Amino acid sequence: MKKSDKIFINEWLSIKPYKKQVKTDYYYLKLSNDIKSILEKNASDEFFKYIDKQIDFDAFCCFIASYFEDIISNTNIWNSFIKLHTRIYNKKLPFYNVDEYFDNEINQQDVAFLIWYFINGYDDDLFLNPNSDFILQASTLIMTILEKEFEYAPENEFLYSFYQLNDNENDFYIARNYIDKILFQSYLFFYDTNMRLYESNAEILEKKKNKEHLLMFLNENRDSLLHKSSTKLLALKGNVWAAEILGNKKPVSVDLLQMSPKITGLFLYKGHDSKDIFIEHIASGKKFNMTKKSYDNIHLLKEIDLIMFIGIVKWRDEWWFSGVNSISPYDPDIILDEKNSIASRSQVNFIDYQTTDINDYLNKQFNVFLKYNKGQQIAFLHSDKINEFIRKYVEFFNKSLNLSDKEIEEALQRARKDGFLENDDNQKFDFKHNSESGLVFFNPISGIEIAMNINSAFPMENNPFYNLKDSIEDFEALLMSDSLSKELLMFCIETCKDKLIFFNDNIGEIYIENIDFLSRFWKKESYYSKPSITLTGLQD
């Protein structure tokens, strides 16, 4: 290998949680170059069709060497994936035969999977057969290097220290920083969540060309992604990975698993005492006590009902400030807008769902939908008929409740008292711009779901829009779209599997055997459906 073709230390360190090299880094840098050399000489042309020599080849070699370093150094990142996958599927890995698999050691199945994962991580729209010859050949070549080094490779104790945490850690910010290291500074998620951070930061830099408040936007973006992002591997959030890597029986791991979603929005300042700052979520009216341990700007809160833009997270039974905040004077127009914002109200939905039997609401709606739609869970419609279909369903549902005029008026009064003014215009969309036809599906977990441009994924008798030539393309869109639910996908498979030509070849068989794993991979943010119901006018 020419000197100019070598991987240098800055490339290796780019996927580490530290920036200054330590002694073992030179060993693993050499290993990265050895992997590069054997692949350059022996890997197939098809391998380099997917991993470009000029763009991502060096990164790939460092990625594989980092897996090896992880196993040797006991940092427990890869092994946490294996444990989680086994817990969910009772199998070490997707796609591959693991009858001969050695825990806590290197395995060819690991390397083959990591090749598939790396390539698909770069290209979300790619359907790549995990048993492709070029993947299996490359994994064999790489294993000749790794097996030779396994008994002699040095542990990176410095790296190990970055993925440790006090068993009884009680500081939210230390715990949050630990999650940050995993999602944005570890090799396994470097080309997943870290890439999303990089791309979203680039968008902010493009939009906010003047530097005023730029750092605030970047900080909020990182904090928001840290709390809300799910990984492509298993569709899990950072706190779940953190707990698993540490060992889920430790006290701090229990606290990590119980960490709440982040609430971001506008609050009214309502005072403070020696321990807490009292704030009220404007959209929902919910009151929170934010611990003073987390907020240094109490001196700026000089009058009641100042408006605060802020994020809060519940950690060890206390609400902690997380992200960025700004303060502005009371403004009744802002209050009215927030009270009538479904998006703002939905920030606290997860709290309402803890105290309200939301499943009862959904079951009633589901049963009425079946009656309304002639026993069918799905309706295929011209796009200009979708709004009318939903409007008539809502009317049909309301009539099914058999509420008296007095009960209806009392419900409206509670909503008005809550500050919510219903606006039907905001609930209508012009679907004609997206497609000539679409579908309305009742998701038992989330409620009404609308999808466009995928009707040919459903070869059903009540689907007049099915077109055989579009079937594979539409099913691929259904499988890979993060905006379409797992439940819609599984409904399609369970109802239409025998008629879906997508599953007729070998790769289709592999995908059907691993459909849940793939659903998590491509539907990382939507895999766990949530009720799309925002409650208003709740009685105390």
How much of the sequence is in beta strands? 5-15%
Query: In total, how many domains does the architecture comprise?
Result: 4
Indicate the overall shape.
Answer: globular
Radius of gyration: 26 Å
Average residue-wise pLDDT: 90
Strand count, sense and barrel status of the largest sheet are:
6 strands, antiparallel
The number of helical segments is: 23
- Measured between the Cα atoms of the first and last residue, the distance is 73 Å
Broad structural category: alpha+beta
> Can you count the beta strands?
9
The unreliable regions are 536-540
Helix content: 40-55%
Keywords:
23 helices, alpha+beta, disordered C terminus, three-stranded antiparallel β-sheet, 540 residues, OB fold (Dihydrolipoamide Acetyltransferase, E2P)
Q: What is the secondary structure topology, with strand pairs?
A:
Layout: H1 9-13, H2 23-42, H3 45-50, H4 57-73, H5 77-89, H6 108-122, H7 133-149, H8 157-162, H9 172-184, H10 193-207, H11 214-228, H12 238-246, H13 251-258, E1 263-272, E2 276-281, E3 287-291, E4 307-315, E5 318-321, E6 326-328, H14 332-339, H15 342-345, H16 349-355, H17 358-372, E7 378-382, H18 386-400, H19 405-417, E8 437-443, E9 447-452, H20 471-480, H21 486-496, H22 506-513, H23 515-522
Helix pairs in contact: 2-4, 2-7, 6-7, 9-12, 10-11, 12-13, 17-18
